């Protein structure tokens, strides 16, 4: 269910998420032990959209638990965007 939910607003998430929100999402995912330190590095990625794609790709590889954690973190960090993406 969560992987499907994460896949549906994918392009809209990429278009609308800000870099500060992406950084906060990564911090939350690291705190919740969904990702490891090496997966937090977005240094080689230039555009904000590419960073958003990379975050989604990393989390989708974690399965439904990772997707669930990303959705929960997004709802906490950016409730407005979460409502717009119909995740709340």
From TrEMBL:
GO BP: any one term: regulation of apoptotic process
Gene3D superfamilies: Death Domain, Fas
Entry superkingdom: Eukaryota
InterPro entries: CARD, DEATH-like_dom_sf
Domain CARD: 1-88
Coiled-coil boundaries: none
Protein name as it appears in the record: CARD domain-containing protein
Protein's organism: Haplochromis burtoni (Burton's mouthbrooder)
Lineage, top ranks: Eukaryota, Metazoa, Chordata, Craniata, Vertebrata
């Amino acid at each position: 269910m969560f992987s499907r939910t994460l896949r549906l607003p994918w392009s809209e998430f990429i278009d609308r998420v800000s870099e500060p929100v992406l950084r906060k999402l990564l911090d939350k995912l690291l705190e919740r032990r969904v990702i490891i330190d090496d997966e937090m590095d977005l240094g080689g990625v230039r555009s904000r959209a590419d960073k958003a794609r990379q975050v989604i790709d990393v989390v989708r590889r974690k399965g439904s638990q990772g997707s669930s954690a990303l959705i929960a973190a997004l709802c906490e960090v950016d409730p407005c965007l979460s409502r717009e993406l119909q995740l709340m």
